[in-house]
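In this section we walk through a basic example: taking a raw amino acid sequence and producing a predicted 3D structure, encoded as discrete structure tokens. The instruction is simple. Fold the sequence below.
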Amino acid sequence: AALTVRFLTRRFIGEYGDMEFIYSHNLTVDGREILFHIWDVPNSQAEEGSSEEKRIQWADSFVLVYSICDRASFNILPLKIQFIKATKEGQSQEKVPIVIVGNKRDLHHQRVVSSEEGRLLALSLDCGFYEVSAAE
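The resulting token sequence is shown next.
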């Protein structure tokens, strides 16, 4: 949620509840107006099942965010990505755009997941990869 709000408002808010939101946002990219619809789902609500399949069918692309300070948030990514690909690519031959984002880069002293691990995971699953800090 912090990363989504930072993208939408350019502000950092550190604490969020465990709620799901859909945001809409217009952005001009290379002279073209792009309308984003962002379905921000906390991990605690992102369980595999019919509601998760609806979210996946709804989306055109995916940004999966983990904390570099939380190994568990990183470890669930391969299963999430496999579920997304099976659900989305099973219907078409098109590759679904997925980006893995390691957040909290500013908390490097609390890091438990290395940048290299993130890059290797993204490479092995054919995803994009970035490390960011929503706070900075």
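Looking at the output, two observations stand out. Residues 1-131 form a domain with the Rossmann fold fold (CATH 3.40.50.300). The chain has five helices and five strands. In the next section we compare this with other chains.
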